[in-house]
Structure prediction request, 305 residues.
Amino acid sequence: MFPFHTWLPLAHVEAPTAGSILLAGVLLKVGTYGLIRFNLGMTPLASASLFGLMATLSVVGIIYGALAALAQTDVKRLVAYSSVSHMGFIVLGIFALNSTALDGAAVQMLNHGLTTGALFACVGMIYERYHTRDINKIGGLWNRLPILALFLILAAMGSAAVPGLNGFVGEFPILVGTFATSRRTGVLAATGMILGACYLLWMVRKILFGPLLEPVPEAGHGEAISVSALRHTVIPPVGVHEIAGLAPLLFLIVVIGVYPRPFLDQMQPTLASIDKNTQAARAGEITTGGAILTGNEASAARRAD
Prediction:
């Protein structure tokens, strides 16, 4: 979360592929889980009073993360900055303090792990074959590795919240719930979806389409050469183990986007209880000079305010 995000791109770039997947899919969610369980569950009035601060930091993180991703040439660093943007959406949904945004935030926690984990896996597959993550040195891989191209496109579209895929199921309720709480915040946050489509589509276009561009594996310096010079270069196709690892993630990306109800049904009882307690605390307790007023006293204090 902005401004405590600066370690994340560095950690992702240095980590192996498996480490990046675990970091994006599991460890980042420990923070947002804590916000739901402890901040909303234990201190609902404080969470409500901090909405302005948390919304500001979340919107800045959404826009800043997306703009930083647009400026990257290292594809792994690009995906890392996209995590900053997506986590801003999740925190914004949590502190919007209504059931619609909270449901979207919880689903988006799962969605982010699936889409970003799949993107990091695709980046790892590219790096294993070409030993570079520089977007400017790779291109046209659709013809060379069509299965990888399919995986990368599907994961990128899910991350970009294309309707019919899982990202839309999470981000759209967050924006709807945020708009109900603060229209200005909802409109500003919606720009993050537009910017997300920009950097993800740019990444897909650079890596997969256009003329084939591959670095020289033997040279060790990553020089880009023509197709004719690579006619004898053997690039291993996508293996069965790679398909087996990515297929479940992509399957869930599609299933959650088309039919999210089973996942929502598992989350909603707990989320509804947290939201009910939050709304009850906000409606029935008002702090005035350090005193907690309830019932008729709270109503009188609200009318006086």
